[in-house]
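> example.struct
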């Protein structure tokens, strides 16, 4: 009898020693969520007195210490993964400032306080993007200000306007709708019938990364306005069709405009949970539930109840599968850190069997950026450059959709502004990534057909377009310069 009691105690003890396994939440229908939480969705989150610390991670001991802190404190917002030999930015609510500073000192981390009041940065951004002349349905697309950030409604109206104005080459596609009922829209830009190999670009899967949708919109404009007058654009469209989806997560993006600039996830709500949202870029079907994800609904990297549970990841899957066998390159565009990333972020393999070809294509984009602006984008796998991140779009595109050239992109910058990149940099970033994409397409063409489709020497050099010496982008006057 005594032996049985000890065995029972051992079993109970082992159960309590196991990590907490989260139950599978059930989605709360949107109409019920509106009735219960409607006012909450209009709340303006004030980031006054929120501190932004930037810490230099120099060794494995420091990395593990910060990762433990991140796991223990969901209230902390790590803007980028903790990586040795790289800075990490941490947004800290006022109540945790002393604790975080104590931990930074405990692990002997060198750090800088970028701001004691993140709201002041957000306020400056609002003033820089004051919506004085809204782009409304039926407006002339030439009126759309590419050097400003825009709301979902404006972006949606702009896509409609492009499809109407350039109907000979631009076709509006809707690949899904969201929890809150917004359409996930994009454009097919094609000359000659739209049956050529496809270049897929999507962005805005993480809501607060505003420069990503702005860059996709810049590329759309570049393609449609240059289709008949720009030799490089004409060559690209003669060989490939482009499918561009600027805003995969419109619900989350709209929340960043309505009151919570730092929101990242989608806006789905679950029965019995006050926290909401799933990270759609942890919800794809390859290596779902692996490292770099969380089963905690309150986490910014919550992976969702199951693979492809989210309407955003379903929409990407639907769009990609409608083009089965035609997609030559898949890009999912994010910010920030200036990275061109190859598979994988998780799974049994460190790198693809096509790694060398992928690397050469990515390096073509890297060279194009360097030639234009003098900036350096690192190239490598997601795990090498960022951190393990299971359930990502690029990994699924490569493994699940059999797209050889699948990339996850992190645009500017390297942390000075982070997610609050000034609008004054939109056009430079847009041109930078348009040229990178064109050069990557050129390299794919060279590999698959034995010839390039345009002469890259035809690109004017220089960050302002025209001079033969690369010009750095103008340095904005805010926020205060820090080390």
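> example.seq
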């Amino acid at each position: 009898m005594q032996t049985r009691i000890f065995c029972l105690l051992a079993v109970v003890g082992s159960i309590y020693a196991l990590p907490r396994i989260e139950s599978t939440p059930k989605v709360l229908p949107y109409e019920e969520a509106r009735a219960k939480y409607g006012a909450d969705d209009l709340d303006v989150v004030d980031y006054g007195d929120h501190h932004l610390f930037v810490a230099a991670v120099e060794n494995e001991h420091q990395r593990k210490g910060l990762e433990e802190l991140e796991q223990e404190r969901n209230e902390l917002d790590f803007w980028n993964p903790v990586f040795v030999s790289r800075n990490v930015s941490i947004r800290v609510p006022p109540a945790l400032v002393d604790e975080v500073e104590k931990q930074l000192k405990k692990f002997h981390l060198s750090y800088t306080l970028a701001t004691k009041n993140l709201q002041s940065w957000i306020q400056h951004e609002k003033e820089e993007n004051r919506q004085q002349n809204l782009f409304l349905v039926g407006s002339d697309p030439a009126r759309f200000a590419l050097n400003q950030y825009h709301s979902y409604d404006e972006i949606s109206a702009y896509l409609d306007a492009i499809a109407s104005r350039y109907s000979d080459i631009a076709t509006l596609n809707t690949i899904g709708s969201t929890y809150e009922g917004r359409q996930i829209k994009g454009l097919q830009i094609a000359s000659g019938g739209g049956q050529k190999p496809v270049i897929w670009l999507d962005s805005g899967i993480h809501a607060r990364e505003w420069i990503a949708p702005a860059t996709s919109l810049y590329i759309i404009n570049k393609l449609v306005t240059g289709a008949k007058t720009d030799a490089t654009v004409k060559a690209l469209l003669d060989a490939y069709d482009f499918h561009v989806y600027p805003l995969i997560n419109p619900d989350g993006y709209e929340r960043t405009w309505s009151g919570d600039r730092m929101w990242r996830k989608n806006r789905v709500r679950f029965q019995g949970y006050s926290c909401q949202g799933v990270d759609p870029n942890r919800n794809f079907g390859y290596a779902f539930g692996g490292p770099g994800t969380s089963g905690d609904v309150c986490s910014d990297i919550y992976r969702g109840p199951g693979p492809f549970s989210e309407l955003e990841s379903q929409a990407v899957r639907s769009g990609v599968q409608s083009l089965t066998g035609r997609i030559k390159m898949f890009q999912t565009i994010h910010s920030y850190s200036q990275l061109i990333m190859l598979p994988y972020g998780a799974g049994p393999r460190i790198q693809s069997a096509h790694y060398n070809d992928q690397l050469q294509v990515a390096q073509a984009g890297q060279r194009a950026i360097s030639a234009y602006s003098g900036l350096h984008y690192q190239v490598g796998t997601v795990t090498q450059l960022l951190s393990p991140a299971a359930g990502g779009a690029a990994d699924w595109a490569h493994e699940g959709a059999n797209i050889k050239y699948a990339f996850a992109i992190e645009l500017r910058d390297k942390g000075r502004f982070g997610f609050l990149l000034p609008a004054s940099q939109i056009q430079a970033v847009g041109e930078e990534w348009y040229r990178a994409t064109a050069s990557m397409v050129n390299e794919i063409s060279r590999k698959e057909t034995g010839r390039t489709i345009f002469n890259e020497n035809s690109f004017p050099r220089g960050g302002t377009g025209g001079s033969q010496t690369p010009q750095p982008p103008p340095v904005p006057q805010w926020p205060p310069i820090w080390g």
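> remarks
Residues 1-21, 464-483 have pLDDT under 50 and may be disordered.
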